[in-house]
Design goal:
Layout lengths: L9 H7 L11 E5 L2 E4 L4 E4 L2 H4 L8 H11 L12 H13 L4 E5 L2 H20 L5 E5 L8 H6 L3 H4 L9 E4 L4 H7 L4 E6 L2 E2 L5 E2 L2 H13 L3 E5 L13 H5 L5 E4 L10 E5 L1 H4 L15 H14 L2 H25 L2 E7 L2 E6 L7 H10 L2 E2 L1 E2 L4 E4 L7 H20 L1
Length: about 400
């Protein structure tokens, strides 16, 4: 059965949408694997992955099947009841990680909101109301709610919304001495991204995360890892904490967890989870059967030795070619990241011009990302085919060539 749709164009965005985004000039309408087609039928290679979300590309048969099957059963029952997909996905996450308990929500911001509230609640219950301070990193990103944007270390996102939530301190990332100087017995949590995503695709040093773990233990503070962007196979391990061998007390996941369907999760231990007793925290849609059915299919595909090994191999394929392009055209100072979260730091001559690379790539039928003004970011599907990597990088090189010769 075909449905008649009114024709819409990019210009409609400027008429009907709140202007907090500035989307590209074309509208993607269909995707298959790592290829996308726009309204005009133009084909693009997708290296953006919906900002590290489309972990299995577009229209992956396993995800389409899971969603379709569940859509014919039950969409929503509320948390007055539980549901089978949520319980199955929770079991799979618990079995695969340090965690004993899972809280489902709809986004990374909500997963972090739950994580930060839980950290404060645990400290309040165990040590009293004075232990509420949170330490996070400068240039970190943890979401857009008032609490999460306050914990995030980017004032450009948190300024101008009235009084900020108090008790939050920011210290430089990868600087253990600064963290040591800031932490005290009033600290309830240290919040870190194992790889800073929006802050420029910056992996943590191993000694930094190990030191953070030790400091938290010394001060009865919880170590919270925001793995919204780095998790679900993106690093070549199921979660990046496994790459480092440093275990957090609380972990947040979203983005790739649903492969494009909105879902978030906070993972923690039984001991900490008990502080979220009945009624302490909640969400209408969290644990939604549709989202959890898709998340379960994502887990089944991603958490396999073949796919995770493939991520590491594809990282090397990307890195070798990007280093060659960087050297040939003098555009990159460093290629960094883990797995298929890759950042190309722009050389001095090109600093501040990441948007130019985004625009040039689009002109050459390629979707990429930036991470701030100084870093070009790639976050493709974890199962992107080598042929698509090569074709996309050919297009990227043509874009860079055109940009440097302009």
């Amino acid at each position: 059965m075909s449905v008649e749709h009114a024709q819409v164009q990019r210009a409609d965005f400027d008429q009907v949408m709140v202007p907090n985004y500035a989307p590209a000039a074309f509208i993607p309408v269909r995707g298959a694997g790592s290829r996308v087609w726009d309204q005009a039928g133009r084909e693009l290679v997708d290296f953006s992955g919906g900002i590290a979300v489309n972990v299995l590309g577009h229209a992956h048969p396993a995800l389409v099947a899971a969603l379709t099957e569940q859509a014919n059963k039950v969409w929503h029952v509320s948390n007055v009841f539980t549901n089978e997909p949520a319980l199955r996905l929770a079991h799979k996450l618990v079995d695969a990680t340090f965690a004993d308990r899972v809280f489902f929500c709809n986004s990374g911001a909500e997963a972090n909101e739950a994580a930060f509230k839980l950290a404060r609640r645990v400290a309040h219950d165990n040590f009293g109301p004075e232990k509420y301070e949170i330490i996070a990193a400068t240039n970190s990103f943890h979401g857009r709610t008032l609490f999460t944007v306050s914990v995030g270390g980017q004032p450009k996102y948190s300024d101008g919304f009235g009084p900020k939530i108090t008790g939050i301190t920011h210290v430089p990332y990868n600087d253990l001495a600064a963290l040591k100087a800031a932490i005290s017995d009033k600290t309830c949590a240290v919040v870190l991204e194992p790889v800073q995503g929006e802050g420029g695709v910056l992996p943590a040093d191993l000694a930094y995360l190990q030191g953070a773990r030790e400091l938290c233990d010394q001060h009865n503070a919880l170590l919270v890892f925001d793995e919204v962007q780095s998790g679900m196979g993106r690093s070549g391990e199921l979660f990046a904490y496994m790459h480092y061998g440093v275990t957090p007390d609380i972990l947040s996941s979203a983005k790739s967890l649903g492969g494009g369907f909105p879902i978030g999760a906070m993972l923690t231990t039984t001991e900490l989870a008990k502080h979220f007793a009945v009624g302490v925290h909640g969400t209408t849609y969290g644990g939604n059967p549709l989202a959890c059915a898709v998340g379960e299919a994502v887990m089944d595909v991603i958490n396999t030795p073949e796919v995770l090994a493939g991520v590491k191999a594809k990282h090397e394929r990307f890195k070798a070619r990007l280093q060659q392009i960087g050297e040939q055209y003098g555009v990159f100072s460093e290629i960094r990241g883990l797995g298929l979260l890759i950042g190309c730091a722009l050389s001095d001559a090109w600093k501040g011009k990441a948007k130019d690379f985004f625009n040039a790539a689009e002109q050459h039928d390629l979707m990429i990302l930036q991470a701030g003004p100084d870093v070009v970011r790639f976050a493709p599907s974890l199962v992107i085919e080598d042929a698509d990597i090569d074709e996309g990088l050919d297009r990227f090189e043509r874009a860079v060539k055109q940009l440097t010769q302009a």
